[in-house]
Amino acid sequence: MGVYEQRAVLFLDILGFSELVQAGRANRLLGALEHLQGRALEISEEGKLDFTAFSDCVVVSAPMLDGRGALQVVHYAQFLALDLLAKGFLTRGAIVSGELYHRGSIVLGPALVHAYRLESKKALYPRILVSHSILGAAVEVVERLSAADRRFTTVQPIFREDFDGSLHVDIFSEGASAPEMYSVQTETDGSGRTTAFRDSTLTFIDRIFSVEPPPVATEKYAWLARYFFEKCKDNLWPLPTNLPIPQWKKDQYEEELRVMRIADQQE
């Protein structure tokens, strides 16, 4: 019997650790690592995924089975990225499928090497890239679910194509797998839809951009600002106060929202 099994694997890098070490912010680092240990304990008790955290990296995996493992790992990647965003950390990673051994704190195999290389060489920005094998497996699972249950006709767009053609997990998609701090509010937008996810996300993004980013991370933060501005426009969300985009873009978008509100009132 071989050591490896076919698994979906997420390799996640928490950005900004080296800057915090140099700045002597050990308490914040310790808090983040302890939080990740708690998440690892939660998920191991549920028995759905294997989770290993070390230094500034996280590895999460699940058996591929009939493709459900791919969808599980993608959803948990959404969860972790949002979870760490709420703590003030940006993440970068990759999800692939392949041969992997993952038991407790021991994780090794070609799939881990593939995921690490994809994250370190191609992710570049605070995004979680997805291999074509993971995308294909996730699509097949959704198609099977749709065929088995006609009520299951759609799935939220959990993937996004970026400017360079890369596919990454859309962590700000409607109905994203989000931690508890994104669902504590009960306000609605007037149409009955809860605004908890929106309001929490806006708060955390505003907090991220409330301080000047490190010079070495300027491009990463600029990418995140463009990405989030696009999601605000797609969802008709208000803009976070500190979102660093040109003022003319803010003014143009605010005018578009104002016109839409007037049109809605007249209907």
TrEMBL record:
InterPro entries: Nucleotide_cyclase (IPR029787)
Protein name (record): Guanylate cyclase domain-containing protein
